[in-house]
Protein backbone atom coordinates (compact mmCIF):
# COMPACT_ATOMS: atom_id res chain seq x y z
CA UNK A 1 0.00 0.00 0.00
CA UNK A 2 2.96 2.34 0.57
CA UNK A 3 4.80 1.41 -2.59
CA UNK A 4 4.96 4.07 -5.34
CA UNK A 5 3.47 1.58 -7.80
CA UNK A 6 1.86 -0.99 -5.54
CA UNK A 7 -0.62 1.52 -4.11
CA UNK A 8 -2.23 1.82 -7.56
CA UNK A 9 -2.67 -1.95 -7.69
CA UNK A 10 -4.28 -1.91 -4.23
CA UNK A 11 -6.69 0.81 -5.34
CA UNK A 12 -7.75 -1.31 -8.32
CA UNK A 13 -8.14 -4.41 -6.16
CA UNK A 14 -10.31 -2.55 -3.63
CA UNK A 15 -12.81 -1.89 -6.42
CA UNK A 16 -13.05 -5.59 -7.21
CA UNK A 17 -12.30 -7.53 -4.02
CA UNK A 18 -14.87 -9.38 -1.90
CA UNK A 19 -16.48 -8.06 1.27
CA UNK A 20 -14.27 -10.37 3.36
CA UNK A 21 -11.08 -9.24 1.62
CA UNK A 22 -12.00 -5.60 2.15
CA UNK A 23 -12.70 -6.36 5.79
CA UNK A 24 -9.25 -7.90 6.14
CA UNK A 25 -7.64 -4.77 4.72
CA UNK A 26 -9.62 -2.63 7.19
CA UNK A 27 -8.44 -4.79 10.07
CA UNK A 28 -4.78 -4.09 9.35
CA UNK A 29 -3.30 -2.44 12.42
CA UNK A 30 -1.13 0.04 10.58
CA UNK A 31 -3.78 2.07 8.75
CA UNK A 32 -2.61 5.30 10.42
CA UNK A 33 0.99 4.68 9.35
CA UNK A 34 -0.15 3.94 5.81
CA UNK A 35 -2.38 7.02 5.73
CA UNK A 36 0.57 9.23 6.70
CA UNK A 37 2.61 7.94 3.78
CA UNK A 38 2.83 9.85 0.50
CA UNK A 39 1.70 6.81 -1.50
CA UNK A 40 -0.26 5.01 1.19
CA UNK A 41 -2.67 7.90 1.67
CA UNK A 42 -4.16 7.24 -1.77
CA UNK A 43 -4.79 3.59 -0.93
CA UNK A 44 -6.44 4.44 2.41
CA UNK A 45 -8.62 7.08 0.77
CA UNK A 46 -9.73 4.46 -1.75
CA UNK A 47 -10.45 2.05 1.09
CA UNK A 48 -12.70 4.65 2.76
CA UNK A 49 -14.54 5.15 -0.53
CA UNK A 50 -15.22 1.44 -0.97
CA UNK A 51 -16.32 0.52 2.57
CA UNK A 52 -19.75 -0.98 2.01
CA UNK A 53 -20.94 -2.32 5.36
CA UNK A 54 -21.29 -1.00 8.90
CA UNK A 55 -18.84 -3.65 10.12
CA UNK A 56 -16.17 -2.52 7.64
CA UNK A 57 -16.68 1.12 8.58
CA UNK A 58 -16.54 0.36 12.30
CA UNK A 59 -13.24 -1.53 11.95
CA UNK A 60 -11.65 1.18 9.79
CA UNK A 61 -12.79 3.90 12.22
CA UNK A 62 -11.26 2.07 15.19
CA UNK A 63 -8.01 1.67 13.26
CA UNK A 64 -7.86 5.41 12.48
CA UNK A 65 -9.21 6.76 15.79
CA UNK A 66 -5.95 6.62 17.85
CA UNK A 67 -4.07 8.71 15.29
CA UNK A 68 -6.77 11.09 14.13
CA UNK A 69 -5.10 14.30 15.38
CA UNK A 70 -1.79 13.26 13.78
CA UNK A 71 -3.68 12.57 10.56
CA UNK A 72 -5.45 15.93 10.65
CA UNK A 73 -2.12 17.76 10.96
CA UNK A 74 -0.27 15.73 8.34
CA UNK A 75 0.30 16.68 4.70
CA UNK A 76 -0.94 13.26 3.56
CA UNK A 77 -3.10 12.17 6.45
CA UNK A 78 -5.41 15.17 6.38
CA UNK A 79 -6.75 14.00 3.01
CA UNK A 80 -7.81 10.70 4.58
CA UNK A 81 -9.70 12.58 7.31
CA UNK A 82 -11.41 14.77 4.73
CA UNK A 83 -12.36 11.67 2.74
CA UNK A 84 -13.93 10.21 5.90
CA UNK A 85 -16.00 13.38 6.32
CA UNK A 86 -17.14 13.17 2.70
CA UNK A 87 -17.90 9.45 2.50
CA UNK A 88 -18.67 8.08 5.98
CA UNK A 89 -21.35 10.58 6.94
CA UNK A 90 -21.67 12.61 10.16
CA UNK A 91 -22.50 9.73 12.49
CA UNK A 92 -19.52 7.58 11.52
CA UNK A 93 -17.29 10.69 11.47
CA UNK A 94 -18.06 11.48 15.12
CA UNK A 95 -14.56 10.33 16.13
CA UNK A 96 -13.18 13.22 14.05
CA UNK A 97 -15.49 15.75 15.70
CA UNK A 98 -14.59 14.44 19.16
CA UNK A 99 -10.90 15.01 18.43
CA UNK A 100 -11.49 18.41 16.80
CA UNK A 101 -13.41 19.68 19.84
CA UNK A 102 -10.98 18.19 22.37
CA UNK A 103 -7.88 19.53 20.57
CA UNK A 104 -9.45 22.61 19.00
CA UNK A 105 -6.57 25.08 19.46
CA UNK A 106 -3.90 22.56 18.45
CA UNK A 107 -5.80 21.67 15.28
CA UNK A 108 -6.99 25.18 14.36
CA UNK A 109 -3.50 26.68 14.61
CA UNK A 110 -2.00 24.13 12.23
CA UNK A 111 -1.54 24.65 8.49
CA UNK A 112 -3.54 21.56 7.54
CA UNK A 113 -5.67 21.40 10.65
CA UNK A 114 -7.33 24.74 9.99
CA UNK A 115 -8.55 23.45 6.62
CA UNK A 116 -9.86 20.22 8.12
CA UNK A 117 -11.78 22.15 10.79
CA UNK A 118 -13.53 24.15 8.10
CA UNK A 119 -14.51 20.95 6.30
CA UNK A 120 -15.77 19.54 9.62
CA UNK A 121 -18.11 22.52 9.86
CA UNK A 122 -19.28 21.94 6.27
CA UNK A 123 -20.24 18.29 6.81
CA UNK A 124 -21.52 18.51 10.39
CA UNK A 125 -24.97 17.87 11.74
CA UNK A 126 -26.47 20.86 13.61
CA UNK A 127 -25.41 19.33 16.94
CA UNK A 128 -21.85 18.64 15.76
CA UNK A 129 -21.56 22.11 14.27
CA UNK A 130 -22.82 23.74 17.47
CA UNK A 131 -20.28 21.89 19.62
CA UNK A 132 -17.42 22.75 17.29
CA UNK A 133 -18.20 26.43 16.69
CA UNK A 134 -18.81 26.88 20.44
CA UNK A 135 -15.30 25.61 21.13
CA UNK A 136 -13.86 27.86 18.42
CA UNK A 137 -15.74 30.85 19.90
CA UNK A 138 -14.38 30.00 23.35
CA UNK A 139 -10.82 30.26 22.03
CA UNK A 140 -11.44 33.09 19.55
CA UNK A 141 -8.96 35.48 21.19
CA UNK A 142 -6.05 33.06 20.85
CA UNK A 143 -7.07 31.76 17.43
CA UNK A 144 -7.58 35.25 15.96
CA UNK A 145 -3.92 36.06 16.53
CA UNK A 146 -2.63 32.94 14.84
CA UNK A 147 -1.52 32.65 11.20
CA UNK A 148 -3.95 29.76 10.62
CA UNK A 149 -6.40 30.06 13.47
CA UNK A 150 -7.63 33.44 12.25
CA UNK A 151 -9.04 31.77 9.13
CA UNK A 152 -11.08 29.39 11.30
CA UNK A 153 -12.57 32.29 13.29
CA UNK A 154 -13.38 34.17 10.08
CA UNK A 155 -15.01 31.04 8.64
CA UNK A 156 -17.25 30.75 11.68
CA UNK A 157 -18.19 34.43 11.40
CA UNK A 158 -19.00 33.98 7.71
CA UNK A 159 -21.64 31.40 8.65
CA UNK A 160 -23.68 34.39 9.81
CA UNK A 161 -25.27 32.67 12.80
CA UNK A 162 -26.20 35.51 15.12
CA UNK A 163 -25.65 33.64 18.38
CA UNK A 164 -22.22 32.34 17.35
CA UNK A 165 -21.11 35.73 15.99
CA UNK A 166 -22.17 37.35 19.25
CA UNK A 167 -20.12 34.81 21.21
CA UNK A 168 -17.03 35.51 19.11
CA UNK A 169 -17.40 39.29 19.48
CA UNK A 170 -17.88 38.85 23.24
CA UNK A 171 -14.69 36.76 23.44
CA UNK A 172 -12.75 39.54 21.70
CA UNK A 173 -14.31 42.43 23.59
CA UNK A 174 -11.73 44.61 25.32
CA UNK A 175 -9.01 43.51 22.88
CA UNK A 176 -10.19 44.98 19.58
CA UNK A 177 -7.63 47.80 19.58
CA UNK A 178 -4.65 45.53 20.21
CA UNK A 179 -5.99 42.95 17.74
CA UNK A 180 -6.27 45.67 15.09
CA UNK A 181 -2.51 46.24 15.28
CA UNK A 182 -1.64 42.66 14.36
CA UNK A 183 -1.42 41.17 10.87
CA UNK A 184 -3.71 38.19 11.36
CA UNK A 185 -6.16 39.39 13.99
CA UNK A 186 -6.79 42.70 12.21
CA UNK A 187 -8.56 40.66 9.52
CA UNK A 188 -10.83 39.18 12.18
CA UNK A 189 -11.65 42.66 13.53
CA UNK A 190 -12.58 43.83 10.02
CA UNK A 191 -14.79 40.74 9.62
CA UNK A 192 -16.53 41.53 12.93
CA UNK A 193 -17.18 45.11 11.81
CA UNK A 194 -18.85 43.85 8.64
CA UNK A 195 -21.26 41.44 10.34
CA UNK A 196 -24.87 42.03 9.39
CA UNK A 197 -27.62 42.51 11.95
CA UNK A 198 -25.20 43.34 14.76
CA UNK A 199 -25.36 47.12 15.08
CA UNK A 200 -24.92 47.12 18.86
CA UNK A 201 -21.80 44.95 18.63
CA UNK A 202 -20.40 47.12 15.82
CA UNK A 203 -20.90 50.25 17.93
CA UNK A 204 -19.12 48.61 20.87
CA UNK A 205 -16.16 47.74 18.62
CA UNK A 206 -15.96 51.29 17.24
CA UNK A 207 -16.06 52.75 20.75
CA UNK A 208 -13.03 50.63 21.63
CA UNK A 209 -11.19 51.75 18.51
CA UNK A 210 -11.73 55.48 19.11
CA UNK A 211 -10.59 55.43 22.73
CA UNK A 212 -7.99 58.22 23.20
CA UNK A 213 -5.32 55.68 24.14
CA UNK A 214 -5.91 53.68 20.95
CA UNK A 215 -6.98 55.82 18.02
CA UNK A 216 -3.74 57.70 17.32
CA UNK A 217 -1.73 54.49 17.13
CA UNK A 218 -4.34 52.74 14.98
CA UNK A 219 -4.38 55.60 12.48
CA UNK A 220 -0.59 55.43 12.07
CA UNK A 221 -0.38 51.64 11.94
CA UNK A 222 -0.29 49.67 8.69
CA UNK A 223 -2.88 47.16 9.88
CA UNK A 224 -4.86 49.38 12.22
CA UNK A 225 -5.33 51.89 9.43
CA UNK A 226 -7.23 49.34 7.35
CA UNK A 227 -9.45 48.53 10.32
CA UNK A 228 -10.36 52.20 10.68
CA UNK A 229 -11.08 52.38 6.93
CA UNK A 230 -13.40 49.39 7.29
CA UNK A 231 -15.12 51.02 10.25
CA UNK A 232 -15.71 54.16 8.19
CA UNK A 233 -17.17 52.15 5.32
CA UNK A 234 -19.60 50.01 7.37
CA UNK A 235 -20.91 52.53 9.88
CA UNK A 236 -23.67 55.07 9.41
CA UNK A 237 -25.68 57.61 11.34
CA UNK A 238 -24.65 58.59 14.85
CA UNK A 239 -21.88 56.02 15.24
CA UNK A 240 -20.33 57.03 11.91
CA UNK A 241 -20.43 60.70 12.89
CA UNK A 242 -18.84 59.87 16.23
CA UNK A 243 -16.04 58.00 14.44
CA UNK A 244 -15.44 60.87 11.99
CA UNK A 245 -15.33 63.47 14.78
CA UNK A 246 -12.86 61.34 16.74
CA UNK A 247 -10.57 61.15 13.70
CA UNK A 248 -10.90 64.80 12.66
CA UNK A 249 -8.20 66.22 15.02
CA UNK A 250 -5.67 63.86 13.41
CA UNK A 251 -6.43 64.83 9.80
CA UNK A 252 -3.53 67.32 9.40
CA UNK A 253 -1.06 64.64 10.41
CA UNK A 254 -2.76 61.93 8.35
CA UNK A 255 -2.48 63.95 5.14
CA UNK A 256 1.28 63.43 5.16
CA UNK A 257 1.24 59.64 5.45
CA UNK A 258 0.48 57.02 2.76
CA UNK A 259 -2.01 55.18 4.96
CA UNK A 260 -3.56 58.33 6.33
CA UNK A 261 -4.37 59.78 2.93
CA UNK A 262 -6.97 57.05 2.35
CA UNK A 263 -8.73 57.92 5.58
CA UNK A 264 -8.68 61.60 4.72
CA UNK A 265 -10.22 60.82 1.35
CA UNK A 266 -12.96 58.71 2.96
CA UNK A 267 -13.84 61.41 5.44
CA UNK A 268 -13.75 64.23 2.90
CA UNK A 269 -15.88 62.16 0.58
CA UNK A 270 -18.56 61.65 3.22
CA UNK A 271 -18.21 64.67 5.50
UniProtKB/TrEMBL annotation:
Top-level taxonomic group: Eukaryota
Segments annotated as Pumilio repeats: 1-27, 63-98, 99-134, 135-170, 171-207, 208-245
Signal sequence annotation: none
CDD domains referenced in this protein's UniProt entry, alphabetically: Pumilio (cd07920)
GO molecular function, one term: mRNA binding
Family matches, as Pfam families: PUF
GO BP annotations, alphabetical order: post-transcriptional regulation of gene expression
Keywords linked to the UniProt accession: Repeat
Domain PUM-HD span(s) in chain numbering: 1-271
Stated role: Sequence-specific RNA-binding protein that regulates translation and mRNA stability by binding the 3'-UTR of target mRNAs.
Protein name: Pumilio family protein
Name of the coding gene: puf3
Amino acid sequence: MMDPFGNYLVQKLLDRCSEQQRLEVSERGELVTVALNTHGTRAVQKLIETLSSREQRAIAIEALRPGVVSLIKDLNGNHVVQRCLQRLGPEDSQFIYDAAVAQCVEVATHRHGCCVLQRCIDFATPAQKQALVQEIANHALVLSQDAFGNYVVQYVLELGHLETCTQVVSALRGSFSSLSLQKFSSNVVERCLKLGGMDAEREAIVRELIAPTSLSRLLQDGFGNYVIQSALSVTSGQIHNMLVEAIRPYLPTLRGTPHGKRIVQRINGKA
